[in-house]
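User:
Can I borrow your eye for a moment on a structure tokenisation matter? Would you put together a sequence-and-structure record for a protein of your own picking? Please set it down just below, with no commentary around it:
AI:
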Amino acid sequence: MVHEWGHPVAPAVLYWDGLGGCGLHANELGPLLVDQFGLRVLAPDPPGHGASPARPPEAFRPSVLADLAAALLDELGLDRVLFVGFSWGGRVGCSFAERFPERTAALVLVDGGYVAPGDLGADLDADLDTCVAEARRELEEDSFDTWEAHFAFQRDSLGRWSPALEEAHRAMMREADGRVVPILEAESLGAIKLGGRREPVRVTYPGIAGAGMPVLLLTAPEPDVPEIAARAIKRFGEALPAARVEAMPDAVHDLVSHDPARVAELVGGVQPPP
């Protein structure tokens, strides 16, 4: 499933959402990029998310997902895109830019692609079963008794609400056994966790730096782990000294929902080479 906004011949943006999300998460950001910057925005539901079916565990490695993104561009007849990745999508974007620099007009990481699992204390030697068990606990925490409870949690977390946000956050969930639960299942989330540990994001940085494409990292405050985030940003800046890092104070991790206008302004200001 691919959500789309804009004219078919306009310069293309490929938006890849975060864990548990879907392409419809860009339903406020996409129209802003179209109206203000004349872009075409394509936002797929990643495997196992939204309306897209899950895939085998090995298919969730960042490098394989980058290949999938490239195959999608082939299907759409697109040579190059500005890749915008939110959270986990930033990790996929780093792999895409490293593997397909000639197809990456620019790379925008929306609070993603810089903090690694090891930074947060993850067991880097964990096997798939361990990662799935970890994922199952997290998904239980992200489940709710009613739709109203889910929407209330999101509204309080984001500090704003709109019909578009309700539509997007509804598309990420489903009803099961009398509860509202994430569409993303533990087996897929566990495979994603394993893939991120087996393919550290830092290995993509030299290739991205060597390609010379514009890179923009947007960061939100991490009140629980400020030192970890600061170290990760420093490491990112040392590996990609030409990248622009833009902090968004008084924001939350889900910048796409929290302040789509500011994110659109920053994304639209990226100037890819001709």
